[in-house]
Design goal:
Helix content is 35%, strand content 28%. It is of the alpha+beta class. The two termini are 17 Å apart.
Amino acid sequence: MEENDRSMYRNMIRDAASGLPPGAELRLTVLRLGGWTENGWWEAVICRPQDVEALMRGDTIDGTHLTFDERQELIVWLSGIGAVPADPVPVRPEELAGFTCAVALA
């Protein structure tokens, strides 16, 4: 990941976090978008806690989005932007779908 991309993602995440009440944390949520393989296509979204329910319903929300094919791409992206999930990212696709946890910038 290039430094400009890393900086852009971090700034977007900081902007989203700036409007949160004290003690609230951003959320990392992973959705399965589809595909013909076992893993398929995925979307990871870092967003405000109050937007997770709308995201799970399929609504469009503000947040930092990543579309990926392999779990490792998600791990590399999170590491590259300095985002630290509160819980380990699941390995199995059936556990990854709908995964949500708090996330913070390191």
